[in-house]
Amino acid sequence: MSRLRHTNDLLALGAILALVALAVLMFRPLDRALRREGIWMADVERTQALEAARQRFGTDLHDALEMAPDEEAIAAVVAHVLSSTLPAHPAELLLADSSEAHLTSRVVSPTAGPAGCDVAAPFDCPAVRRATAQSFESSSALNACPHLRERGGGARSALCAPIAFMGRSVGVLHLTGNDGEAPSSDTADRVGVLAGQVGIAIGTVRAFSKAHLQASTDSLTGLLNRRSAEDRLVRRLAAGEPYAVVMADLDHFKLLNDTYGHEVGDRALRVFADTVRSALRTEDVFARWGGEEFVIALPNKSRREASIIVDRIRDLLAEACQRAETPTVTASFGIADTAMSTRLDQLLRFADEALLAAKANGRNRVEVAGFGIHESTDNALEPQR
User: With bands split at pLDDT 50, 70 and 90, how would you rate the model's confidence at 53?
Assistant: First the structure.
C-alpha cells in the first residue's frame, strides 16, 4: 500500500514538473515579448520626455525673446541660455553690423568663455554660406572649417549655426567641444532652436528700429525731422531743462538751386548739416525744420554762449564749402533761450524774429533775441526770405 502511495507521489511530482517545464516553454517567448515591450515603452517615454523638454525650451525661449525690446536684451537672453543650457561649451554669438559686411562678438558664454571664432565677415563662415548648421567632429579633420583648423589651443570639435532673418544673414552661433566628440543630438537641436529664434528676434528689432528711424529723420541729411525734434524739445521744457534754441536758414538758397540745380542744392544742405553736426555735443538737438531751415537746441547754454558756438559754425561752414568744392554757402541765425519763455511756440517765435533780423541786416550773421531784437509776443508779418 505504501509502495503504491509512493508511486503515485512520484507520478504526481513528475506531472507537476512536466507542467512547470511546459509553462516555462510556453511563457518564455511571452516574457521576452513583454521585456521587449517594456524596453520599447521606456524608449517611447524617453523620446516623448525629450520632445516635451525641447518644446518647452522653444516656448520659453520664444516668450523671453518676445519680451526683449532691443539687441542688448536679446543678447542677455542668449547669455542666460548658454550658461543654463550649455554650461560646459565655450560659445559665442557673432552678429553682423548694419552693412551686413562685418561680424563682431556680441555674447560670450558666461560659464565656459568664448569659442574663439575669428571669422570677420558673414560670407566667410561656411555655415552662413551653406545656410545650414555645420558640425565638425575634429578641427584636425581634412574637411574641418578653416577658421577652426587654424585656431590655436589644440584640436576640438565645433558646431556652427547660421542666424538669418528672411533669407538675409544676421550672424552665427558658434560653440566648441572636446576633440572627437560631436555635439549630442539634444545639443544640436537646442542650438538650432536658439539660432532660429534669435534670427527672428534680431531681424524684427532691426526692422522696427529702421522703420522708427525713417519715420523720425530727414532722408536727405539724416537729421531729426520737425515732428521728432518738437517732441524732444517739449519733453525737455516739461522737465525744466534750460537751453538755447537757434533757428538757421541758408542764404539765397532758391538762387543756388536755380543757378546750379537741385543736386548742388541738396549737396549744400548735406554740407551744412554735416558741418553743424561736427560742432555739436551728443546731448544737443539738431533738426531739419523744413526746406533750407534748421533748428538747433543747446541744453544748459544761454543766448550769449550759443552765439559763440554759432560763430564757430559759420567759420567751419566756410572751410567745409572749400573742401567740398561746393559753391559758397552761408547761413543766417537767430537765437533765443528758455529764460525768455518756457513755451516752445514762443521760444521758436523769438528765435525766428531774430533770424528775420539777421536776414534784414545783410545775411550771413547771427542775431540774438533780446539784444537789439524786441521781445514782443505778438505775431509778426514774416518778410520774404
Answer: confident
At 118, which helix (H) or strand (E)? Answer: none
59 vs 40 pLDDT, higher one: 59
Q: What is the C-alpha to C-alpha distance for residues 145 and 131, in angstroms, rounded to an integer?
A: 15
Over the stretch 82-130, which tens digit does the pLDDT of each residue have?
A: 999 899 999 999 999 877 788 999 999 999 999 888 888 888 899 989 9
Helix ranges restricted to H, the chain: 2-66, 71-85, 126-130, 146-149, 185-216, 226-238, 253-260, 262-279, 303-323, 344-360
Distances (CA, A) of 135 to 31, 120, 192, 299, 365: 42, 20, 11, 55, 67
In sequence order, what DSSP letters do the residues of 226-282 get, joined into one string? Answer: HHHHHHHHHHHHHTT--EEEEEEEETTHHHHHHHH-HHHHHHHHHHHHHHHHHHS-T
Q: Which of 92, 292, 293, 367 is catalytic?
A: 292
pLDDT for residue 20:
62
Radius of gyration of the chain (CA): 38
State residue 84's pLDDT score: 92
Contact 81, 61 (CB under 8 A): yes
- Provide mean pLDDT across the span 25-39: 66
Three-state SS for 321? helix
DSSP class of 217: B
**pTM of full prediction above 0.85:** no
In three-state secondary structure terms, 381 is coil
Residue 292 appears among annotated catalytic residues: yes
Q: Which of 37-51, 137-151, 288-302, 365-379 has the lowest mean pLDDT?
A: 365-379
What are the residues whose beta carbons fall under 8 Å from the beta carbon of 210, sequence distance 6 or more?
A: none
CA–CA gap between residue 86 and residue 78 (Å, rounded): 11
Question: What whole-number distance in Å separates Cα of residue 32 and Cα of residue 38?
Answer: 10
